Amino acid sequence: MELLGEITADRPLLVLAVKEEAQYLDTALPVLLTGMGKVNAATSLATVLGRGPRPSGIVNLGTAGALRPGWTGTHVVGTVLQHDLDGELLATLTGETYGAPLSLPDGGDVVLATGDAFISDEASRARLAERAPLVDMEGYALAAAAELAGVPLRIVKHVSDEASDGAARTWRDAVAECARALADWAAENTPYRS
């Protein structure tokens, strides 16, 4: 976890997993780098929100794999779900619902599946494509932490790869281009100056 800048109640907090995704941000806004995966994302965001002050909002910028053909570009997420938690089985065992999909108030129709596995094979891609067009490793955890803290969250993802064979290589090759697109989106859609 690395926090760049100072969180204040009158400005949003930008949250990204790794510095490669943040490399072109030109902002006076605070930036939180959480590290990859759900645990890193949730604990990093919960830590800074618990310390206070809380930001006016949170914007998660990051890369995502495309689970369906034709998905490219930058997308604002409307619903996020966990693909690696068997909520149905847990409900039958305990009678409780765990990990239900979360709706984001400023999002659209795009569904993002979050899990700790980097999806890079056709079988996993096909299975997940039935539930969502995009996949990442942090979105659901950030949404859960933000919801518990009562801070509004937007998730914005730029497609880096097709979540299939060669996805890891493709992500490494594409991350700089994705970072540029995310920085451009932030410049157009996020107030930069206090």
Describe this structure in words.
This protein is α/β, with parallel strands linked by helices and 194 residues long. Helices cover 35% and strands 24% of the residues. The protein has six helices and nine strands. A five-stranded mixed barrel has the order 4-8-7-5-9. Strand 7, helix 4 (122-129) and strand 8 (134-136) form a beta-alpha-beta unit. Helix 2 packs parallel to helix 5 (139-149). The radius of gyration is 16 Å and the shape is globular. It starts with a strand and ends in a 5-residue tail after the last helix. The mean pLDDT is 91.
Which spans of ≥5 residues are poorly predicted at pLDDT below 50? Answer: none
Order of strands, main sheet, comes to: 4-8-7-5-9
Number of strands: 9
Class by SSE composition: alpha/beta
The backbone outline, from C-alpha atoms, is globular
Question: Share of helix among residues?
Answer: 25-40%
Multimeric organization: single chain
Main sheet properties: 5 strands, mixed, barrel
* Overall pLDDT confidence: 91
What is the CA-atom radius of gyration, in angstroms?
16 Å
| Percent of sequence in beta strands | 15-25%
Quick recap:
The chain has 194 residues and is of the alpha/beta class. 35% of the residues lie in helices and 24% in strands.
